[in-house]
Design a protein that fits this description.
about 450 residues, alpha+beta, Arc Repressor Mutant, subunit A, 3-stranded antiparallel beta sheet, 17 helices, 11 strands, globular
Length: about 450
């Protein structure tokens, strides 16, 4: 067994704790699995310690042939450097196991490689894993190509473990890594890529014909802007979005990047996973994995607003019970809690205050049509059993016998009746406040 190396026991990660990340591994193209905030941070911490250790087998807590093929660090050091301050080891183990399910596509002008992010992970306590005493060690091994990228990077960018610890979303960390690479480039701008490419790179979600990205305006609102704001507030670079249009359509993006003139103050990194907030999400019916994915993609403030909004809707005694709080929560996250509030309607006052447009279509009619589409989007978030139950309830209450409901929402007329009914079930009658917000949002006020 090799002699253990001394580890840094400081409470704060130092800005000087740097590692080299090959440029080929920045903005990795994920083909399977998902790169969450925690998996991104843990992978970077693994790279840092592997480069410090230089060879496998050092610090091995057990003397076996297999143990010599792992890099070894204390689990406490992994948690500290990844800003994971929870004592929930089972959740951490689940995230480590998930890293083995991430398949990457690495390609350059000479080679194409499809490989897993991590080959193997293991936890060892010589005193016994069920014991409360002893030291728990974390062992990890990379697949061949990833090992070479980690240990012998050609062209690379230096990153600090410190700054990654300050970021709260996986998208922020992904964008930071990509832009940090170009901070020392004379051009000070990233490559120009399609927004679909950027969506995959920043969210860690595979993009395919079966799983297309959302509309650009939602990607910009929910992913790009929050990530830029976090990077500009907390790290050593400033990032600016550059949009490339074809006509009015944004088709390609790049980012301008500059070093900040004044270094950031050193302060403790916030916890990477707020388990109390995760518990609030799981109360709506989401699994722990789904809740972790939500927290990886969105800032805590946005999630707390959505949780409060959904809980208020659940507690609203005069509204119909929610068929699926989980689907309603996912819909609220897509819309944004503020936009969703404008659609939670309580009275019929707006029906007496209708503004006419030149086309003859009233603002109220446009509002109801938009609200019906939102209700349809929410309906599609439900599973098949919930959708069937809701549509059966609609059929029982429907008084329009002229429309055939046998084909369900595939029938255009039936879908129109259903979505307006479901919107009424969800949000009640329109209010003047909601209608005014709709007019302001979409600039429908008369000229």
């Amino acid at each position: 067994m090799r002699k253990p190396k001394a580890a840094n026991n400081g409470e704060l990660t130092s800005p000087s704790m740097e590692f080299r990340k090959t440029n080929d591994a920045i903005g990795l193209r994920v083909r399977e699995g998902k790169m969450s905030l925690l998996t991104r941070k843990v992978f970077n911490v693994m790279m840092y310690h592997a480069q410090q250790l230089k060879v496998t087998g050092v610090n091995s807590p057990i003397d076996t042939p297999a143990s010599k093929k792992y890099f070894w660090i204390r689990l406490a050091d992994l948690a500290r450097d990844a800003a994971y301050d929870s004592k929930d080891t089972e959740f951490l183990k689940a995230q480590l196991e998930e890293m083995q399910n991430i398949k990457l596509l690495m390609e350059n002008d000479r080679q194409w490689t499809s490989e897993r992010l991590v080959a193997s992970v293991t936890l060892v306590n010589p005193m016994g894993l069920k014991k409360h005493s002893g030291q728990v060690w974390f062992g990890f091994a990379f697949p061949p190509e990833v090992h070479e990228l980690v240990m012998a990077p050609g062209t690379y960018t230096r990153f600090s473990i410190f700054y990654q610890g300050l970021l709260r979303s996986g998208s922020s960390l992904a964008l930071y890594e990509i832009c940090r690479r170009y901070a020392t480039n004379p051009s000070k701008v990233t490559l120009i890529e399609t927004y679909e490419h950027w969506y995959g790179a920043l969210t860690g979600n595979p993009v395919s014909a079966d799983a297309p990205p959302p509309q650009y305006k939602y990607f910009k609102r929910d992913v790009i802007r929050p990530a830029m704001a976090e990077i500009n507030a907390l790290t050593d670079i400033q990032v600016e979005l550059i949009e490339h249009r074809v006509g009015r359509r944004v088709e390609r993006l790049q980012f301008r990047v500059e070093h900040t003139k004044q270094p950031q103050l050193g302060f403790a990194a916030p916890p990477v996973i707020d388990l109390e907030l995760m518990g609030s999400i799981m109360k709506f019916g989401l699994t722990q994995v789904d809740a972790a994915d939500v927290m990886a993609q969105h800032g805590d403030d946005k999630i707390r607003s959505a949780v409060a909004f959904v809980q208020a809707r659940i507690d609203h005694k005069s509204s119909a019970p929610l068929d699926s709080p989980a689907a309603y929560f996912r819909w609220t996250m897509k819309q944004g809690a503020d936009a969703a509030k404008n659609l939670q309607l309580k009275s019929s006052a707006a029906k007496n205050s209708v503004v006419k447009k030149d086309s003859g279509t009233t603002v109220l009619e446009k509002f109801l049509a938009a609200r019906a589409q939102d209700a349809y989007d929410l309906y599609n978030e439900l599973d098949n059993a919930d959708r069937s139950a809701i549509f059966e309830r609609f059929k029982d209450q429907n008084t329009n016998t002229a429309v055939n409901l046998d084909r369900g929402v595939e029938n255009v007329l039936a879908r129109s009746l259903f979505t307006n009914w479901y919107a009424q079930e969800l949000w009640g009658e329109p209010t003047i406040e909601a209608l005014a917000a709709f007019v302001e949002q979409f600039s429908l006020a008369p000229r």
